[in-house]
Amino acid sequence: MKKVIVHPERCVGCMQCMPACATAHSRSRNLFAAILESPVPKPRIHVGAGLYQEGFPNRCRHCDPAPCLLACLPGAIFRDEELDTVLIDPDKCINCASCAMACPFGVIRYHEDCHAPPGKVVAVKCDNCFERQEQGLIPACVEVCKVNALTFEEPGEALKRKTDEVARSVSLGVSQAELPAGFARFALLIGHKRKELHVGRP
Amino acid sequence: MNDTYAGRTITRDGQLLLEKAEKDRVETVWDRFENQLPQCGYCEMGLSCRICVMGPCRIDPFGEGPQKGVCGADADIIVARNLCRMIAAGAASHSDHGRDLIEVLDEVAKGKAAGYRIRDAEKLKRVASEYGISSDGKDDLKIAEQLAYAMQEDFGTRKKALTLLRRAPAKRRQVWDKLGIAPRGIDRETAEMMHRTHMGVDNNWQSLLLQALRNALSDGWGGSMIATELSDILFGTPKPATTAVNVGVLKKDQVNIIVHGHNPVVSEMVLLACRSEDLLQLAASKGAAGINLAGVCCTGNELLMRSGVAMAGNHLTTELVLTTGAVDMMIVDYQCIMPSLGTVAACYHTRMVSTSDKARFPGMEHREFHPDNAAEEARALVKEAIENFTNRGEVYIPVEPVNAVGGFSVETILGALGGTPQPLIDALKSGTIRGAVGIVGCNNPRIRQDFGHVTLAKRLIENDILVVDTGCAAVATAKAGFKASDAAQMAGPGLRGICSALGIPPVLHMGSCVDNVRILVLASALANALGTDISDLPIAGAAPEWYSEKAVAIGAYFVASGVYTVLGPMPPVTGSMNVVKLLTEGLQDVVGATFSVEPDPEKAALAIRRHIEEKRRGLGLPAQKV
Ligand code: SF4
Ligand code: SF4
Ligand code: SF4
Ligand code: SF4
C-alpha cells in the first residue's frame, strides 16, 4: 500500500505543504475561500527548523503500535486498517491531551475543526488525506511538494531506491559519487547557512 | 547574562537592551527572524518567480520536479531576473533620494525653500563646471538653478552617458564602453531593467546581468553620486568632527530626539530647530537640561559626518533604542525604517513621526516635510517633543557612549594628505600601507550584530590595511572604538605610524550608504594618479552583514567599477550555478573584478589580504605571501 514518505534531506522549508494540508481539510477545499472560513482550517503537517535552519516536515507517522492510541482512554483514537491510518474521532475526543503527551513527535494539535462538532476543541492530526484518497487523489502535502521531500509510494520501492543509491555510492567511493544535478545548488546554500550560524556565536 | 542576547549582538548596549525588551515584552527583529525559520529555500535560492500571474512558479533545485516556470524560464533566467530586480529596486531608492536633493537645490535657487541655503559654494562651482556650467559673473543661486536642471537631465533619456562617469579613470570607461554598459540615464537604466525582466523580454541570463551592472553603475556614478554631492553643497562638505556613539548618547536629563532614515533634507532642519534659542528655553522651562539630537542609521550618519551629531545605533539597534524609554520623539524619513517601530514606541511614551510623502508606517503620525515648510515643521515637531519630555516613565540608559571621529570626505582625506593623493600612494608603494578596503552595508539578523564588521575591520587594520567605511558598518566599528582618536594603537606598525602622524583613526568614517560613491571618487583619484585602472589597485570592498536591495546595487557598482567585493550573507542566487559562477569568477574577465561570498570575517580578511597582495604584485610593488 502506498504511503507518504518523508525525505527530510530534500525539504527546502517552503512550507507549501502546510496551507495545502489546511485547505484539504477545509469546508471549501479552496485556499482563497478557506482562509475566510470559521473555524479557520489548520495544517496537520508542520515544518520545523533544524540546526542549520533547514526545513523539516513533521507529520504523524501512523505508528504501530501507536502510543497516542494506547493513551486515549475514551477510545477516540483508532486505526483504519485499510489505509493503515491512525484516526481521531472528534465526537469521542474529550480534549484531555493524553495523546499529545504520548506522541513522541509532537504532531497532535488542539483546535476547532470543521469536521468536529461546532465550538468543540478537539485533538487533530494527519489523517493521510483519506477523503482525497477515496477520490483517487494523492495526499495534498505530497501533491504540492515540488522537490519530492514528500512522496506517496510503496515503502518497499522507496527503500529499494535508497538502498541502491547508497550501494552505488559505495561502489564509486563516496567522494566520487555523483550527486544528482541539483544537489550542488542546495548543498551550497545549506553549507553557507551552516557557516553563518557558526560565525562568531559564543 | 542570557546566552541568546550575546548570540544576537556583540554590542553591550544591544545585549542589555534585548534583556530589557524581553522584560517589557517588546518583540524585536530577532524574534521575528526566528519565527520565520525555516525560510523558504526556493526564495533563498532565487528559484521562485512572481513576475507574472501565469505563476507563481518555482524550480526544483534537485532537478527532478519542475525545471521551468510556466513561461519556460529555467533556473538561470529566473535567478537572474530576480537578482536584476533587486538591483533595480536598490538603484531606484538611491536615485530617488538624489532626486529629492535636486528638488531642494532647485527650490533654494528659486527662493522657495526657507531654511535651506548653499553652504558649500565652492563645491557648487566645482560640480557645476563638471556639468559644463560656467560660474563667471553668476551668483550662486543662478549656478544652482542651472546645476539642478543639468542634473535632472542625467535622470532622463536624452543623454548617451551620465555626466559624472567622467570622474572614472579612462581605462575604466573603456571597459564600460566596450561592454556597452556605460549608463545613459539614471531612471532609464532602472526602467529598462524592469522592462527586460518583464515576461517575454530579455531571456538571456548573461545579457540580463550585464544590464544589471549598467543599472548599478547608474546608481553609483549617477543617483547616489548626485545625492552625495548635493548634500555637501546644501549642508556642507564633511570635515572631521568628534562625536559619540551607542545608546549611551541618549541623555537622561535632556529632551531626546532621534532622527532615522536616509535623507538629510528633513534632519538638517530638525538640527537647526534643536539649536534654536527659544526652543532651548522652552526645554529648560520643562525641566530639561537641553535638547539632545541623536541619529540612527544613515540619517544619523549624514548628521554625524557634517555636524558631529551623536549616533545612537545602527540598523538592528533601531528598535532597542526605543526600549530605553528615553526617546521623546523619533522622526523618520525613508529607507530601512522597520514598520515595527510604531508598535515598539507604543510601549513607551515616544512619539513617532513620519515625514516623507512617499513613506508611511503603522503607528506613526504623518507630518509631511517639503522644502517650503520644512523649517517650520521641524520647529513645531521639536516643540512637541519638548512637551512630551514630561510624559516620560522610567528611563534605562545602560552604557556610556564611545568617542569617535567622523567626517572624512574625499576633500578632507586629500586635505589631510596635503592636497594630493601622493603621500597615500607613496605609503602604498613602499608597503607601509598594504592597501585600502571599503567596509559597507547593513546589519542582518543572520549574522551576530556587528561581529562581521568589527572582526573584519580589526583584522585588516592589524595588517596595515586602511579601512574606510560607511552606513551601518561605520557605526559598528565606531561602537567598537576603532574611530576613537587613539584607535591607531589597534593598527599594525605601518598604518599606526601614518595614522598617528596625521592624527586620524585607522578606520575612516566616509558617511552614509549613498556616500559609498566617495569611495569610488577616492579610488578614481588613486587610479588616475597612478595612470591605471581601479581594478589594478590594491583595494577591495566588503559588505559583511548586508541585507537590503540597495546593498546589492552598491555591491554591483563596486564590482562593475573594478573593486573585488566580499559579501557576508549569500544573495539569492545559489539556484543557478551559472549565475554563481559568473558573479564569482566570470566577471573577472568582463570587468576585472568579482564577488566573493564568505560569512566568516576571519576568512574574508584572509581572502582580501591575498587579493591586495596579488594586486600589489601586479603593480610591481613589494608583495607578501598571505
Ligand atoms: S512542501 Fe515539501 S519542501 Fe516545502 S516545506 Fe513542505 S515538505 Fe518541505
Ligand atoms: S500521533 Fe504520534 S504517536 Fe500517534 S500515530 Fe501519529 S506519530 Fe504515532
Ligand atoms: S485529547 Fe482526545 S484523542 Fe487525545 S487522548 Fe484525549 S480524548 Fe483521546
Ligand atoms: S497526508 Fe494529508 S493530512 Fe496528512 S499531512 Fe499530508 S496533507 Fe495533511
Automatic annotation (TrEMBL), chain B:
It catalyses: CO + 2 oxidized [2Fe-2S]-[ferredoxin] + H2O = 2 reduced [2Fe-2S]-[ferredoxin] + CO2 + 2 H(+). It holds the Pfam family Prismane. Transmembrane segments: none annotated. [4Fe-4S] cluster 2 binds at residues 49, 52, 57, 71. Its cofactor is [4Fe-4S] cluster. The keyword Chaperone does not apply. [4Fe-4S] cluster 1 binds at residue 40. It is an enzyme of class 1 (oxidoreductase). This is Carbon monoxide dehydrogenase. It comes from Syntrophobacter fumaroxidans (strain DSM 10017 / MPOB).
